[in-house]
Structures are given as C-alpha cells and as structure tokens.
C-alpha cells in the first residue's frame, strides 16, 4: 500500500488550482474550489478535501461538470432567490451564493436561496463559517432523493443521498459554533478514506447490496447503502432536506424524486445587537464546556472546537494525503501535463494560509 504524503496547504492549493485550470476551469473558479477543498483538510474533514479533485477532473472530462459555468439568479422575490448553477463547479456556486445571501440579509435581515443544477457543494460547514464570521446565522442543507446511497430507517435499500445539514452561529472569536453533519451515520467521503487506507468501518455504518450489515467499505461501493444516524430521528431529517430542496420548483413528480440545496442566512443584528449576542453565545458555550467530562472523555467540546483546533495544528504541521489519492493526483497531472512540484507555489498561495 502506498504511503501517505504530507503537504503544506499552499503546495496542495497550487496543485489543485493548476489541475483545475488545465482542465478548463477559469482562474477564479479554480482558486475558489482549491481554497475550500484545502480548508476542508485543514479543518480535519479529509473526506471533503483534496481527495475530491480526481472526481471533479473526471466529471469535467466526461462533460458532467461545466468548469466555466457561472451561477445565475433566475428568480428573485424580496428576500428569496433561486440560483441556477448551470452544472458548474458546485463549490464555486455555493461560495457565490453564500456571499449573495449575506448581501441580501444585510438589507432585509433574512435571505433564503434554493438551487437548480448544482454539483457537489463540498463541506457545508465552510459556508456556514463564512456567514458566522460576518455576524450571521446560516442554515444550509443538501437534499438528494435521486441516488442509491442511503437507506431510510427500516428499509433494505435507499434512494437517498447523505443529505447534510450545517448551521453556523457567530461567537465573536476565532471558533464560531459550526454544526456540520450528514444525516447518514457518516458522510460517504469517510468511506472513501477508509477504502483508500484499506481499513474496516464500524458496525452500523452500511448495509451490503443484499441489505445485510457490513464493516467492509468495499461493500458500499459494490451496491451497498449507508444508514441514517439516530435511527428514525435521523431518517426524518434525511427526508426533510429533500423537502427543502423542492423549493427550487423542479420536483420529479412522475418518478417521485427530489433533489437540490437550500440556504438561509439571518443577520443577527436584525433581531438583536450583535456584540451582546455574541458574548452571550460564547458565555453559554463556555458554560457547557465547563461541565465535568464523563468517564473516558478528557473534556466537553461544542461544535466548531474540533475544526478550529485542527486548523491551527495543520496550518503549522501540514496534512497527509493518502497514498491511493496521491496516485490518482499524479495520474491526472500526467494526463494534463501539470507539475506538482513545490516550485509551482505562488506568493498568494502562501498568504491564503497565514492565519487560523
């Protein structure tokens, strides 16, 4: 098995950007996508990081992703918008959309966006954090009911995606409250990591193609299914994300499917002064963290702590890319004639990753 390779974030950013631009993505799109992928690795969510690059490149090569597509607002009514991603890079669409939602919330207090024709959004917590750092609360969901990936509670097969939910709340400091969860028991990318590392997975994660429990991630990729977290409760949230996605106005009634994404951004100061609110939220969270930990735990954490701590560490130490993923990156680099050497790093690449 190939060994993992450690990268500084600026180096991997340069590799990702250069691969995407060589595949036809405009510079701005490539920079945006690369930064968000690297941020996912820095935050400790390798399942949504640079391991996605080969899949994106293959999607571009096969015509499923239009790398130069620009998202477009196709309907707007007050503080509600529908954005058409035109099958472009989903991460780019999501980043432009959260900026647009914050701009509208600055005027009206609240903005909601639904989406059509968008690709993989990457880590939803990225956009929730952007909003939280700007003094907003954000709720973001992806609802996919058109793929065979997750089985709802009590079922032996699943027409659903991993359907994540993310929430960001400002705290006025470097570690906002960021809840980012798949409504499946784990994100599919976690299985990609286990497969790349040839590792088993815990019981209760997946069913094989015959509807039987399995601990082998290969069984998922051989026609198996993920399970929802929290049994019937998680299954209900799994379905709720699909219902929100129906706001884009394009449900497939004939086939009984729904698919799309949803964002809601609320400007805190439209409800209450921001600074006192942030102080109160931080005091509340610190009070939770001060509770004595249960046996087997070193401390009580709240959502956002793990990501902030991991980012501080990985900015300093770098992060590992599994050997199997590196082989895929080298293969795509050879096909596209792109160097992955450190001398491809540009000054701006270093500046992006100077602060936690």
Distance between the termini: 33 Å
- Largest sheet entry: 7 strands, mixed
Helix content: 40-55%
Number of helices: 12
Number of strands: 12
Mean pLDDT: 94
Name of the CATH superfamily of the largest domain: Malate/L-lactate/L-sulpholactate dehydrogenase, NADPH binding domain
What is the count of distinct domains? 2
Name the descriptors.
7-stranded mixed sheet, 356 residues, alpha+beta, 2 domains, Ribosomal Protein S8, Chain: A, domain 1
Molecular structure report:
- The protein has 356 residues and is of the alpha+beta class.
- It folds into two domains: 1-68 and 290-356, Orthogonal Bundle (Hypothetical Oxidoreductase Yiak, Chain: A, domain 1); 69-184 and 228-277, 2-Layer Sandwich (Ribosomal Protein S8, Chain: A, domain 1).
- It is built from twelve helices and twelve strands.
- The strands form three sheets. Strands 2-3-4-11-5-6-7 form a seven-stranded mixed beta sheet.
- The model has no long low-confidence stretch (mean pLDDT 94).
Short description:
With 356 residues, the chain is of the alpha+beta class.
